[in-house]
Amino acid sequence: MMAETSLLSASGVEVRFPMPSHFLQRKKPVLHALRGVDVDIRRGEAFCVVGESGCGKTTLGRVIMGLLNPSSGEIRYDGTRIDTLDEGARRPFRRRMQMIFQNPYASLNPRMTVRQTLAESLRYLGEGMSRAQVTEKIAETMESVGASAEWGARMPHEFSGGQRQRISIARALITDPEFIVADEPISALDVSIQAQVLNLLSKAREERGLTYFFITHDLSVVEHFGDRVAVMYLGEIVELAPVAQIFEAPQHPYTRLLLSAIPRIGGDAFKAERVPGEIPTAIDPPKGCAFASRCPLAHDRCRVENPVLKPTPTGTMAACHAVEVS
């Protein structure tokens, strides 16, 4: 039974990146990657984040992991605020929080063997483990991800994409973390390998009691892997619900658009909804609802007042004036 206690929370998180500008420009352009994001991740759950490329999913994951600093807002882990900690104070949390990156070809050091890659994490976070303990831990972790002990002496270029991702998962698991940010961990892999990696992540969650922040653009993956899902659009969460409810009764028009794009077997396959209007830019986000220019339910209020997450008639949360409970 999944625990209901919060492990990680983000409150009012914003990330703004200054953009290159002409010296005659009076107003310097700023890219608004995240705009007031709130999330609360329960201990033991697989919390998924979906949305199109550029919606802010990866940025949120990197802020949670401390790889980016928020422009405003705060991140708390197990009740402790961590976004303001220096590297020394954050080090204990590095062991408890790990990340699996999207590209297995770029995330491993090409000059280090597999054994050196895994040992590096233990040297930094292993709190004085002996050489024998490090060797034993590496062998144990590699076995847990279905990797042969013989892999340890080999270089990353000797492996396929699926094998590299197993090594990346082993690197994340070797410090015995509680929380893992998985940033599109299967998108760079062949379809035949994707299910194997997802099964491996599910097995690790069951055996180790892990909590996942799982980033993806593929709602069909969420359907089989996640407990709850947050749908992001232009740096904001527009819908938040248990996975089953998202598929049974999506409330936000953008969520419906994403679901309509999932290939289905039968006559309705590939019949994605087409919506008019231009996709707004994160450099100059609109004043009201960011989806208003493409939304079939938009009205005058949507163009001047940005909606916030509120309960819907189904009991889920959506940022949409058209579906909120009055």
Report what the structure shows.
- The protein has two domains: 6-233, P-loop containing nucleotide triphosphate hydrolases (Rossmann fold), CATH 3.40.50; 251-326, no CATH class.
- Strand 9 (228-233) and strand 10 (236-242) form a beta hairpin.
- Helix 4 (131-144) crosses helix 5 and helix 5 packs parallel to helix 6 (191-208).
- The protein has nine helices and twelve strands.
- It is an alpha/beta fold and 326 residues long.
- It has helices at 57-64, 87-96, 114-125, 131-144, 161-173, 191-208, 219-225, 243-248, 253-260; strands spanning 6-18, 30-42, 46-50, 72-77, 80-81, 97-100, 179-183, 211-216, 228-233, 236-242, 310-311, 317-318.
By secondary-structure content and strand pairing, the structural class works out as alpha/beta
- Series of secondary-structure elements, N-terminal to C-terminal: EEEHEEHEHHHEHEHEEHHEE
Number of helices: 9
Question: What is the quaternary state of this protein?
Answer: single chain
* Arrangement of strands in the largest sheet: 6-7-8-3-9-10-12-11
Sketch the major β-sheet: 8 strands, mixed
Uncertain regions: pLDDT < 50 for 5+ in a row? Answer: none
Number of domains: 2
Helix content: 25-40%
Strand content: 15-25%
CATH architecture of the largest domain: 3-Layer(aba) Sandwich
Distance between the termini: 34 Å
Beta strand count:
12
Global outline: globular
Query: According to CATH, what is the class of the largest domain?
Result: Alpha Beta
Radius of gyration: 21 Å
Please name the CATH topology of the largest domain. Rossmann fold
Mean pLDDT: 89
Specify the CATH homologous superfamily of the largest domain: P-loop containing nucleotide triphosphate hydrolases
